[in-house]
Amino acid sequence: MKTAGYSVTPLSKKLGIKTGFKVKTVNAPDYYLKLFSDFPEGVEFYSDKKTKKNFIHLFAKSVNEFEKNFPLLKNEITFDGMIWVSWYKKSSGIKTDLNEKIIRDTGLKLGLVDIKVCAVDDFWSALKFVIPVKNR
Prior knowledge:
- The protein has a single domain, classed as Vaccinia Virus protein VP39 (Rossmann fold), CATH 3.40.50.
- The model has no long low-confidence stretch (mean pLDDT 94).
- α2 runs parallel beside α3 (100-109).
- The chain has helices at residues 11-15, 63-73, 100-109, and strands at 22-26, 44-45, 53-59, 77-88, 113-119, 124-130.
- The chain has 3 helices and 6 strands.
- By secondary structure, it is of the alpha/beta class.
- The protein is globular.
- The chain has a 6-stranded mixed beta sheet, covered by helices on one side.
């Protein structure tokens, strides 16, 4: 599996993963780590809900799966951390009821702001959320 073809920027840089980050993935595809040609050193993966993470990446195949997981993740990020939410691109050919508008609207209702969108690979897009600076 390759990252989206129109960008030569390494995925770790596009997503903002840095050395020493505490990372959590939720429902990530099996090939997720293979997407990173230059995965930063010292990154630690966590699956618990108590450890504060710098980076969380949620993959959701449906609105139901998204709504079940996304609201719970806000309390797991550091004050300057980020949550990326990925959904199937229209061009992937995989049917889904989830889209960028639903994800953005939900994030805003949760008090987060979206600041970036990117292609993860040929199947997944991602939207980045952070806690607004005024609330940190």
